[in-house]
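Thread title: Can someone regenerate the structure for this chain?

I was given the following input by a collaborator and told the matching structure tokens would be attached. They weren't. Posting the sequence so someone can regenerate them.
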Amino acid sequence: MNASTDEPYRARIPADIDTPDKIAYGLTARQLAVLAVAAVLGYGLYTALIRVLPAPVAAGILLLPAGLALALALGRRDGLGLDSWLWAGLRYLRHPKLRVAPPATGGISDDGVIDTGTHTIALVAGTTVNIGLRTADEQAALIGGYGRWLNSLSAPVQIVVSTRRVDLSSQAQRVGDNAAAITAPGLAALARDYAAFLAELAEDRDPLWRTITVAHTATQPADALRRAEHTAGALATLGAETVVLDGGAALAVLTCAVDPYTPAGTGWPRAVTP
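Best answer:
Regenerated them for you:
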């Protein structure tokens, strides 16, 4: 404790601790290496071309490779450089493809327990808690509660933070259908305006939502479900909205994990955070 203010010490942890260091000109070592290799190869190709072609023609031929090199060095998608995507694609093409049959005993029960054949998994979905708007005492209490939950774990857990595309068109359709049953003219007009807003947002933008999923594993389904319920209760005391996923919601989570670029519906019972 701080004797002068009676407030807990606070330490800020930067969110970009995994960001590569900038070496020169605002570029990372990876980007400089890609540009350096491209420059050496481009110069060698230009030297060879000007022996048989006019210099403007040789320079024009090099425009496309130079643009590709710049895109490879500076371009990013989903937080990864394009060279990482290219390398991953090459490794995927080089590795042999094996089709593994699912275990005969695998499946998802109605209560959401996933049977992999060797162990069972229960999933908990929850929202985040905005700790930055709390007082120092509240922040200390939240961190202490989160620490107590971590200390109470008797088996490993997996915490997955993911961003999904969300399909607002179906939500807009549901709001519009419900607006027809509203007897109050003012409320019905507001509902129709809201449905039109959602439809326009789904058409013009690419809405996303962030989901938090905690996976508990155990050899027995009852143990996995009990651990998931404990986590849901412990995190709920911190102010998060939590729910143990049932069979339908767990299937939706796995479906989005397999194909994350398919928009997910907004009607499935899952705690989410924008």
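The first strand starts at residue 22 and ends at 24.
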